[in-house]
Amino acid sequence: MATKRKPNAAFMAPLNPSAALAKVVGAKALPRTEVAKKLWAYIKKNGLQDKKNRRNINADDTLKAVFNGKKTVSMFEMTALVSKHLKK
Fold it and tell me: What is the pTM of this model?
């Protein structure tokens, strides 16, 4: 019988966003999964997903602060940049 996979506690642990990231996802501590959901909600609401290459995100001024001043980042690069703005 297959055992049910336990959710990874470290992955679900609430993390505190930096001041720059808090402008997008709010200031209270959130698990990474919630940070990702809120980030995508913000991207979709503001139409920041690149029209031609949907894997790229075009940063507005608020997201530029999170993306180290980059104007365009890929989805994969975004994850790495956002994780630098999360602290325990």
Answer: 0.86
**Three-class secondary structure assignment of the chain:** CCCCCCCCHHHHCCEEECHHHHHHHCCCCECHHHHHHHHHHHHHHCCCECCCCCCEEECCHHHHHHCCCCCEEEHHHHHHHHHCCEEC
Residue type, 11: F
Using CA atoms, how far apart are residues 43 and 87, in angstroms rounded to an integer?
22
pLDDT tens-place string over residues 11-30: 789 999 999 999 999 999 99
**According to CATH, what is the number of the domain 16-87?**
1.10.245.10
Q: At 5, is the pLDDT very low, low, confident or very high (cuts 50, 70, 90)?
A: low
